[in-house]
Design goal:
Layout: E1 10-14, H1 18-27, E2 32-41, H2 46-55, E3 61-68, E4 74-80, E5 100-103, H3 107-116, E6 120-121, E7 126-128, E8 135-141, E9 147-151, H4 155-159
Parallel strand pairs: 1-4, 5-9
Antiparallel strand pairs: 2-3, 3-4, 6-8, 7-8, 8-9
Amino acid sequence: MLPTPRSFSHIGLSVPDLDAAVKFYTEVLGFYTIMAPTEVVEDDSDIGRMCTDVFGPDWKRLRIAHLATADRIGIELFEFDGHQAPEDNMAFRQHGMFHFAIQDPNLEALLERIVAAGGKQRMPVRKYFPEGKPYRMVYVEDPFGIVFELYSHSYELTYSAGAYA
């Protein structure tokens, strides 16, 4: 018997400037704020101990904000002391996450907003199945170099019946 599919809860992103990231993800992508930027320090509080469990000793301080998408997926933004940008923000040959995807039926308009806000378009807008389905996609970066993908239609519609045919 197969297990029941689980729901996706949230994703955590490390950003160099929490306030700028909250502004981008709320004003450009339309996510809403659940918890405004908050400072957490390495101490003996419940959250301080939990962060030490996750990050190990000497993490010192971080700032965190919680956002959510229209379909209630959480976006947890972290600003760490000593933050470093990766050498390669598209290290697709390394295991682990290398992108996430956002869905918007007006992909081109959202793409324009992302670029106008300091983001980057990584490729031309591509059509999936141009003869059979009106689906489009494009890879982008936020102003901090975090790579994500825009889809015009849902994941299920994009890849069901006829995908890669």
